[in-house]
Structures are given as C-alpha cells and as structure tokens.
Amino acid sequence: MAENQTSEQGSASDEPTVIILYGGTGDLAKRLVLPAFWELYTRGLLPKRWKLVGNGRGDVSHLDFQQHIFDALSEFATPPEAEAWKGFAPNVLFAGGGFTHDDPGSLLDVIREAEDDLGQDRRIIHYLAIPPSAFEKTTRAIKAHDLGPGSKAVYEKPFGVSLDSFHELDELVHSVFDEEQVYRIDHFLGKEATQNLHLVRFSNRLFNDTWSKEHLAQVQIDVPETLDIADRAGFYDETGAALDMLVTHLFQVAAQVAMEPPLSMAAEDLQDARESVIAAFRPLDPSEVVLGQYRSYRATEGVPDDSDTDTFVAARLWIDTDRWQGVPFLLRTGKMMATSAQRVSLIFKPTDGPVHSGGASTNALIFDLKGNGAIEIQMTVKKPGPEPVPAESCSTLHLENVSAGSMTAYTSLIYDVFAGDRSLFTSSAGLEAAFQAFAPVQADTRPAIQLYDDGSWGPAAADALTGDVGWLLGS
Fold first, then answer.
1. How does DSSP assign 108-123, residue by residue?
2. Using CA atoms, how far apart are residues 387 and 216, in angstroms rounded to an integer?
3. Backbone angles phi, psi at 22, to 5 degrees
4. Which whole number is the average pLDDT over 75-82?
5. Is 100 annotated as a binding residue?
6. Which residues form the active site (predicted)?
C-alpha cells in the first residue's frame, strides 16, 4: 500500500499535522490508540502530511518506537504488511525525557524536527493517553511551553474524579484551550451500535412513536463484564466501577436514549440534544444505588487488603423531562460477573384490553451494543394450538449487513478529531451536569460496599431496583 492511500471516504484534513501521543508506550496507547492510528492510515484517513510523536519518560529512539508500534499492532490488531509499513514508519518519532512545566525533555526538539518536514504552519494535536492523575501536570506543561494556541487536545476519561476536581481541571484546561479545541473522549459514543440508538429511533416511526413514558415502563442499560482488573489494579483501585463506567459510559448511553429530537443531525445540534437531557438528570438517590465488590478483589496484586473500591454499581436514574417523567433508567455494570454484554433494553408497559401476556416474557426492544450490534424484539405471540394461549417470541436483526467497512470506536472518534466533528464528544457543560447527578454517590451518604461472588450477577440488592420487572439479563 502506498503512503497514506486515499479512500473513497476522503482525508481528514489537508493541513500538515503533528500528533503528540503522551503515554506513547503505555497500555492504553498499545491496545487502542496506536491500532486506531494504523487503521486510519491504511484507510487513507490521516492528513496528507503528518508525524506521530510518542512521548514518555524513557530514552527511546525513533526506530525503537517504530518497532514498539509494529509489535503492538501485531499483538492487538494485525501484523502490518511490508509495503504499508514502509510508508507509515518514517512518520513516527519519539520524544523522551518526560514533559513537565520546567523540563520539556526532548519534545520541543522533536517537534522542530517534524517541522523540518511539515513546515512551520503545522497543526498540533495533543493526545493524553496517560493516567487521569497526570492530566493536570501535562496540561500545565503544554501551557508553559506555549503549545496550546491553534492546537487540539484529546483527554481520556475520567475527566475529573468528582464535581470539585472536575471544576479544577476544567478551569486549568480552559486556561490553555478554548472549549472548541477540547475533545473529551468516551469510546462508547464512538461505537456504531450506540449511534444506532438515535438513528433507528428518529428514522423509524415504528419505534419513535413509542419512545416515551406513555409506552415504556423502564429502560435498562446493562454492561456486565466477566473480566477482572488484574492488568490495571493501580488505576482501578483509585477509580472504581461507578467512576470508571457509570458517570461516563452509562450516563452517556442514557442520554443517547433519552434525548429529544435534535434540530438537525449536525454535530452541534446532536451534542446539544444529548447534553440538554443530561442537565435534566436528577441527582442519584444513594438509597437507589447499589455498590459491590467481587470477593477475590482484595487478593489482586496491587490492591490494598482493606480496599473498599466498588467493582460493581447498579443505579436507578430519573430524568426530569416531560417525555421521561416517572420512567426509571436502570444502569448496571461490574467486573467478574456471570457474562459480558452491552445492552440497552426499552421495556414496554403491559397492554390494555382482553389479551394479557401473563406467563410470557416482558415485551422489549433491545439494542445489543457489542461488536457490529443487533436489534432484538421480544414480544408476545399466540402459542400454536387450539387455545389463544400467549407465548414468548424473540426476533433478532443482526447488523452485519450494514456494518461492512465500519471502524472501531477509537478509530472513528480520532478521525472526528482530525475532521473537527465534536458531536460524539462530551462538552464541559455536559460533564458538569453528569458530575452533579453523580455527586451524592461520593458524599458521606455513599452506599456501603456489598460483597458478591466471582462469576455471579452482583449483589442481590440490585435486583430490587427494577421493581417487579427484574433484570432482563440474568433473571
């Protein structure tokens, strides 16, 4: 493949671009970010002229970093073909020695090296693939070395760990960047299947006309995981399930479901519609939140013996809009659970009239967000035979036929950064509203941690949150 082939989708930009990947040799970069850059390259979706500069504390040569990327792609994507790699590798550089307010390491020198090829009118994209605890230090360094003007900055989650820390970080970030320069990434929003939530709704009257309190009893957003936290114990014990997943991914998916029709499908209107509904999230009631920890968690290397970090959270969320008044959104996620899934289930109220679905399954419209995604309709039909006996039936529409050529969530979102499309990123106002809704869970009224067995469905107390419906998964 020739250097940066052109695809029918076009290039993200004609502007020469330097991408600085802070934490370039870290786990997040290796598993997700670098494979995404490679996918953009092979699809011809990087800028026509670009340099990728890894940054870290170690003394790594350009050639060593290129080999590191090759090895990461071989492990977590596919081994690069020789011809494609021949075009990619010369654009990869590394700046060691760290990067702080008073010591830029070799980063400024390597940027000048990139400018020798790209010219002085290059654009910079700062990608902070580093632990959240390092966001502040790196942002201050960007400011001190005057690398903010005209650039873009991508921040991973969580952007702050509480309402107060969010405000502190947000104030610092806005002292360096305008809001339009900042891309706070939440990879759930980049998933094709997540975006189907609003596309399917707004494009099909069959669903759109029943998408409200008049027809729906509750909404369940369920993301259980069978994985433990062994490979990221340090990060996880400082964060926990509620902060890592609830206030980020699950709140954002809830907003995708609950938002009002946007004025248009343009980026600003989509973001406004999603974040207007987040502003209507009622602060969580601690009595409607269950926190858990799987039994073997404290035996994990790197986890303190007395840790009370939550590895499970289930919550009942209320959204105070006319459309959703009185409809509970049930959110659940956890580690070391019975299965792995990513599902949004819209559960319908029982029908009125002479036919009742007693003994049959709950009527529901289910969106499977894993992989290519699927849409499942769970309904009541007549059981074959002479009597009108109701029975359950389930029909699944797999979306492989419309998923050919789809990109991974990270690839899609990084492409949007290049293109300047902020529709699938969280704004400062939206995150502030999310932390306001989450704040009671971090107060003195934080629910006590309940232990649950490894490989189970979490604490039994979470079942009560759904009322008499039960969780569609595991019930």
1. HHHHHHHHHHH-TT-E
2. 29
3. -70, 135
4. 94
5. no
6. 249 (proton acceptor)
pLDDT higher than threshold 60 for residue 8: no
24 is in an annotated binding site: yes
Say how many C-beta atoms besides its own lie within 10 A of residue 263's C-beta. 11
> Counting Cβ atoms within 10 Å, is residue 254 exposed (0-12), middle (13-18) or buried (19+)?
buried
Given this model, what pLDDT does residue 403 score? 53
d(CA 58, CA 2): 32
DSSP 282: P
Looking at residue 264, what is its pLDDT? 85
CA distances from 320 to 135, 163, 294, 429 (A): 33, 21, 33, 18
Whether the CA torsion 134, 437, 247, 369 is positive or negative: it is negative
Q: Which helix (H) or strand (E) holds 447?
A: none
Task: Using CB atoms within 10 Å of the CB of residue 395, give its burial: 0 to 12 exposed, 13 to 18 middle, 19+ buried.
Answer: exposed
Q: Does the annotation list 75 as a binding residue?
A: no
Distances (CA, A) of 268 to 68, 180, 420: 38, 11, 11
- Reply yes or no: is the peptide bond before residue 440 cis, omega within 30 of 0: no
| Residues marked as catalytic | 249
Residue-by-residue DSSP string for 126-189: EEE-S-GGGHHHHHHHHHHTT--TT-EEEE-S-S-SSHHHHHHHHHHHHHHS-GGGEEE--HHH
Q: Which residues pair with 78 in a beta bridge?
A: none
Query: What Rg, from alpha-carbon coordinates, does the chain have?
Result: 24
The secondary element (H helix, E strand) that includes residue 394 is: strand 390-398
Contact 129, 156 (CB under 8 A): yes
Number of H helices, E strands in the chain: 15, 15
How large is the average pLDDT for residues 241-270?
91
Q: Which amino acid is it at 128?
A: L
| Distances, alpha carbon 301 to alpha carbons 72, 196, 230, 298, in Å | 25, 39, 7, 8
DSSP state of 464: G
Q: What is the per-residue burial (b if ≥16 Cβ within 10 Å, else e) of 296-305? A: ebbebeebee
Residue 161 tokens, joined: 């760990």
The rounded Cα 209 to chain-centroid distance in angstroms is 28
449-452 sheet: strands from edge to edge: 390-398, 374-382, 364-368, 343-348, 216-224, 329-334, 312-317, 289-294, 449-452
Q: Is the pLDDT of residue 331 over 80?
A: yes
Measure the CA–CA gap between 340 and 62, rounded to whole angstroms: 39
**What contacts 21, CB < 8 A, 6 or more positions away?**
29, 33, 34, 52, 53, 54, 55, 127, 129
Is 398 labelled a binding residue? no
